[in-house]
Amino acid sequence: MNGLIHIYCGDGKGKTTAALGLALRACGSGYKVILAQFLKSWNTSELNILDKVENVLILRSKKPGKFTWQLNDEEKAALKIENNRIFEKAIEVISCDKKILIIFDELIGAIEKNLIDKEAVVDFLKTKPLHAEVVLTGRNPDGELLGLADYISEIKKIRHPFDSGVKAREGIEY
C-alpha cells in the first residue's frame, strides 16, 4: 500500500486534533506513528497519553518557550537549526518501518516563518518512501505544498471563544 500526503490547514481549531485522530486510527492498525511538532514548546495534554503508547515516537523541542513574533533574530536562527534537526531525525526513523504515519505538526507555519529549510521538506515529500503516510498541519500552505498533497482539508474558523477573551482551556485547546 502506498502512503499518501495529507494537509490539514486553515484558521480554525482542530488541525492537530484531526492529525492525532488519524494517529489513533493508525496505532489501532499497527502503524508506527511519529509526531514531530514545530513551533509548540509548551506541554499539551495529548502528549500525556501519547507518551504512553508504545508505537508512538514524539519529537519536539523545548525551544523557543515563547511565540514566534516574540523572538529576536538570534533566537529565530537557533530555532531554525533545532527544527531542521527534528525534521531530519523524523526522516531517519521513517525508513525503519513498513507501516508508518508521520505527522509534521505546525510544519507549514515553520515554513511560512522561514524557521525550517523548506527545500529539504519539499525534497522529502517528492522522494518519501512509498509506504510512508505523511501529514502536514498549519494555517497557510503555499502552492508548492498544496501541489504535492493527495488530501487537503481546510478547517475554517466561524467562531472561536478566544476572540471573546476566553483563554485556552486544558484538555480542550491544549
Automatic annotation (TrEMBL):
Q: What is this protein called?
A: Cob(I)yrinic acid a,c-diamide adenosyltransferase
Question: Which terms does the UniProt entry file under GO BP?
Answer: cobalamin biosynthetic process
Is Transferase among the key words of this record? yes
GO molecular-function terms, A-Z: ATP binding; corrinoid adenosyltransferase activity
Keywords carried by this UniProt record: Transferase
Q: Does this UniProt record's set of keywords contain Zinc-finger?
A: no
Q: Which domain of life is it from?
A: Bacteria
